[in-house]
Amino acid sequence: MENLSGNPVESHKSDVLPASASAYLDPHYWDDRFSHEEHYEWFKDYSHFRHLILDHINPASSVLELGCGNSQLCEGLYGDGITELTCIDLSPVAVEKMKQRLISKGYKDIQVLEADMLDLPFANGCFDVVIEKGTMDVLFVDSGDPWNPRVETVDRVMSMLRQIHRVLKTHGTFISITFGQPHFRRPFFSNSEFTWSTEWRTFGDGFHYFFYILKKDVREC
Length: 221
What we know:
Residues 59-180 form the Methyltransferase domain. Belongs to the methyltransferase superfamily. This protein is α/β, with parallel strands linked by helices. Helix content is 30%, strand content 21%. It has helices at residues 27-36, 46-53, 73-79, 92-104, 135-138, 151-167, 182-189; strands at residues 62-66, 84-89, 111-114, 127-133, 168-178, 197-203, 209-215. Residues 1-11 have low confidence and may be disordered.
């Protein structure tokens, strides 16, 4: 579901829903939510887009997941033989609970770190693939007019993209799974400071979600 401004609306029990969409930008909201919630998937679970993601990732890939929350995406990837996984989240509550869950299930190889996607603590060019599922959408919750988003929104989104572009290896791939329609996302993805190409697919029954594939250093002039 989404509201008229193009922002996501959760189908979820009311005790974890924020009083307003802007609360999604508050780290305290997420700490409180994750302390009570064990699992939630934004934009469907891995099985719905597995056929898309496996076209762009392989068992040798080093993968960074942004904003892992309490999703089971990394477990799905691991089950498909992709074991060099690093998951980050800004919430220390989410990180600690994710660590405990993965250890209890025997996923000892997956790294889970507390980190800010706007200031990634990784060296340049260290990941083959970066994935975000619904995390970028949070940055748009108070964007105002989707055709002309607020300066603060633009700054946050561009900071995120710069960090992703920086940590990707040459010919690395950024995968973005989102509600955001191409006419709203392309102005960001196609900014001249980035060297990636942009394409997308859709998935979902009835309501379509967007699966963007951005490949670094293969952008056409």
